[in-house]
Write a structure and sequence with these properties.
4-stranded mixed beta sheet; 3-stranded mixed beta sheet; 9 helices; alpha/beta
Length: about 190
């Protein structure tokens, strides 16, 4: 996932991208459960960006995975002025669904990619790879960010799924849980 933004840059010259006004990124393991409109995702189209709240942050608002002061030498922390205290009131977004206005997405993708590449040159990888860089960018643009409920990335992992159903949430989009042995992915780290 670390190279996601680098890959996304390759579509910037594609005719379909050039002829669009909005961009929406979805992981391949998201399965739509009901009809969802552009208005459901982008609302009144008054925000430049859209992201989905991480279910861990929804179930426990004090939980977040922001890279925090003193925990990292990654550009993720260096590039934002957030402090440990100011992060406590912010929503942490999951990297599986995000988007926004095309021109703003171009800026975001380029900045996140440059930040990742600068870290990579110093042998640094942020704790949650591309998701850390995306959240850093969202923090800097928080006033222009629309946050979707985690019902738009409803995890099938039982520890989340059962608790979310029990409090009355219903899945708009299912996020399929995958066995780590079959689909290895990052675990978080110290950089």
């Amino acid at each position: 996932t670390l190279m996601r933004f680098n890959f996304i840059k390759t579509i910037f010259d594609h005719e379909n991208f050039l002829n669009s006004n909005f961009f929406l990124y979805l992981d391949a393991d998201l399965i739509v459960q009901k009809k969802i409109t552009l208005k459901d995702i982008f609302g009144d189209f008054d925000k430049d960006f859209v992201g989905v709240q991480h279910p861990g942050n929804f179930l426990n608002p004090a939980w977040n995975s922001f890279v925090k002061e003193g925990m990292s030498s990654s550009n993720v922390f260096i590039n934002t002025r957030e402090t440990n205290d100011s992060l406590n009131n912010k929503i942490y977004h999951q990297g599986c669904l995000w988007g926004g206005k095309k021109n703003k997405i171009i800026e975001m993708v380029n900045e996140c990619n440059d930040s990742i590449m600068a870290d990579f040159e110093k042998s640094i990888i942020a704790d949650w790879h591309d998701e850390s860089h995306m959240n850093c960018y969202f923090l800097k643009n928080y006033h222009n960010l629309r946050t979707l409920s985690c019902e738009f990335a409803f995890p099938t992992e039982s520890s989340f799924y059962d608790r979310m159903l029990n409090i009355g949430l219903t899945p708009n989009i299912i996020h399929i849980d995958k066995a780590h042995e079959e689909y290895p992915r990052f675990k978080g780290g110290s950089e």
